[in-house]
Design goal:
It contains eleven helices and eleven strands. The chain is α/β, with parallel strands linked by helices and 318 residues long. The chain folds into two domains: 40 residues; 273 residues, Alpha/Beta hydrolase fold, catalytic domain (Rossmann fold, 3-Layer(aba) Sandwich), CATH 3.40.50. The C terminus is likely disordered.
């Protein structure tokens, strides 16, 4: 009888426990669906982290600079800085990462100008003083507007300009590089795609199904005819270095260079300053500027659309 009683009690516990298990499973399922739905609807908040307030300007670093106003092909007003170098080794279109704004790159600008690089650094829409709301297509159009400014207002030839994309900036850099004849491309700690990054950060979610933002860098870098320098930080905890390695493998050997830096994601130019500077200078020596005639002022940009009304602003600060 005792054995029978124990068996009945066990059966009763099992029967009573099934609804609890179902409730737990149902709750976990609802939570999983909620997280996935939130990622889909609010996806831009997972990718873009803009800051509206400028925390400084290049004058803090003792640099000459100009405020520049751009207008994208879809009519969004953008803010940028132009920093001339003398003597000048190169012209850089610098496309920054996904957080902050151009004022958070003052140390990098100091290094680049010291290396003889004149730099145009725009803020994407929704960042700093740029109007609008961040989006993938918006970053492409913003890069296009900056490129056209260098051609039209600064009189630079395409073959003089290096497109430098850092982290997320590698996305618009590659988009632009497939459409123009730039001197070269520099990609620092750039990912293969947003879905690949999402799968790394959220392995428990079907990120590829949820992704509305893509930046398909691995597809775009393949067969790129422009020389490419890959800068990969060994201790990057944001973008795993294997992303840079995969991108590098897609570029023809004669036009690719890869340098591993002993640094983290953001500050390789400080943490491994010697190797960073030497990598840039070596790339500039290997792939000199093609000084063909500058593009005419009525040259179309890489994307069809209304003629951008590009304006350059005015005050030079010493």
């Amino acid at each position: 009888m005792a054995g029978t009683g124990g068996g009945l009690k066990g059966l009763r516990r099992f029967i009573l426990g099934v609804p609890r298990l179902r409730a737990i499973a149902c709750g976990l399922g609802i939570a999983w669906l909620s997280v996935g739905a939130g990622m889909y609807v609010f996806q831009e908040r997972f990718v873009y982290y803009p800051a509206s307030e400028l925390v400084g300007d290049p004058g803090w670093e003792g640099l000459a600079w100009e405020d520049v106003r751009l207008r994208s092909a879809d009519g969004v007003q953008l803010h940028a800085w132009w920093l001339p170098a003398a003597p000048e080794r190169a012209v850089l279109l610098l496309l920054h990462g996904n957080a902050g704004n151009i004022s958070h790159r003052l140390g990098l600008l100091r290094v680049l100008v010291d290396l003889g690089c004149s730099v145009l650094i725009p803020d994407y829409r929704g960042y700093g003083k740029s109007l609008g709301v961040p989006s993938e297509q918006g970053t492409y159009l913003d890069a296009q507007a900056a490129w056209e400014y260098l051609l039209r207002e600064r009189g630079r030839a395409p073959g003089e300009i290096l497109i430098y994309g850092r982290s997320l900036g590698g996305g618009p850099a590659l988009w632009l590089a497939r459409r123009v004849a730039a001197r070269g491309v520099i990609l620092e700690n750039t990912f293969t795609s947003i879905p690949d990054m999402g799968r790394h950060i959220y392995p428990y979610l079907p990120v590829r199904l949820l992704a509305r933002i893509h930046y398909p860098n691995l597809e775009r870098v393949a067969g790129l005819e422009t020389p490419v320098l890959f800068l990969a930080s060994r201790h990057d905890r944001v973008v795993p270095p294997r992303h840079s390695a995969r991108l590098y493998q897609r570029v023809p050997a004669a036009r690719r260079r890869h340098v591993e830096l002993d640094a983290g994601h953001d500050d390789a130019f400080l943490e491994d300053a010697v190797n960073y500077r030497e990598a840039l200078l070596r790339f500039l020596r290997e792939f000199p500027a093609a000084r063909e005639a500058a593009a005419p002022r009525n040259q179309r940009g890489p994307e069809p659309g209304p003629e951008p009304g590009i304006r350059a602003g005015g005050t030079r600060v010493q």
